[in-house]
Design brief:
42% of the residues lie in helices and 20% in strands. The protein is α/β, with parallel strands linked by helices. The protein has a single domain, classed as Rossmann fold (3-Layer(aba) Sandwich). The structure holds guanosine-5'-monophosphate.
């Protein structure tokens, strides 16, 4: 039996908040497994199937919905996104920490999940951009999306940000390094919780 149960570190925040970078870095440093989501949105240049996302057709996605394979799923910016349940539960029961980058609708579904592994494991955090101006600058600087896509993302971001009080933690973004230090510190602290330890 592992010494402690795994942590499910659920991260939300508007696009441009830097949340994906935080999650990826944690995974790259070997601190947690990244939960690779399924999506029906087209891959952006450089994105790799099975690493960034599992890029599925709408039909394949719907089949997985019907088969009950998703822990949560939602429509975001007009596309379907979802997290495969079994992979996450397997990691947690083996004592591995999992980091997932999902939107506020998905987060609400995970919070409402009755599965005891998920309930024990869940730690949720909302990453806020420092200001609306900074968010717009970051979205424009990414240079990956068309103007109307950026406008849609700004609108969605403002709506998403209203949900931060539903999370256990909020990280107000500053510099990349500061954000990462605080983000990792949260995981380190959660690992010390007595409720996660398998006591003799
Ligand atoms: P992007 O298309 O920019 O990678 O992601 C768009 C939004 O979808 C982000 O807010 C991201 O957190 C969210 N997202 C990514 N994967 C999932 C998922 O599996 N489920 C849900 N509900 N949202 C997701």
């Amino acid at each position: 039996m592992p010494q402690r149960s795994g942590i499910l570190l659920l991260v939300s925040g508007p696009s441009g908040s830097g949340k994906t970078t935080l999650c990826r870095r944690l995974a790259d440093e070997g601190e947690a497994s990244y939960s690779t989501s399924c999506t029906t949105r087209p891959a952006r240049p450089g994105e790799v199937h099975g690493h960034d996302y599992f890029f599925l057709s709408t039909e394949d996605f719907q089949q997985k919905v019907c088969a009950g394979e998703f822990l949560e799923h939602a429509t975001v910016h007009g596309n379907f996104y979802g997290t495969l349940r079994q992979e996450v539960i397997d990691q947690l029961t083996q004592g591995h920490d999992v980091v997932m980058d999902i939107d506020v609708q998905g987060a609400a579904q995970v919070r409402g999940c009755a599965n005891p592994h998920i309930r024990l494991a869940l730690v949720d955090i909302f990453v806020m951009p420092p200001s609306e101006y900074e968010l717009r600058t970051r979205l424009t600087a990414r240079n990956t999306d068309a103007e109307e896509v950026i406008a849609l993302r700004m609108k969605n971001a403002m709506e998403e940000m209203a949900h931060w009080p539903s999370y256990q933690y909020r990280l107000l973004s500053a510099t990349r390094e500061e954000d990462y230090t605080r983000f990792k510190a949260l995981l380190m602290a959660e690992r010390l919780r007595v409720s996660r330890l398998h006591q003799p």
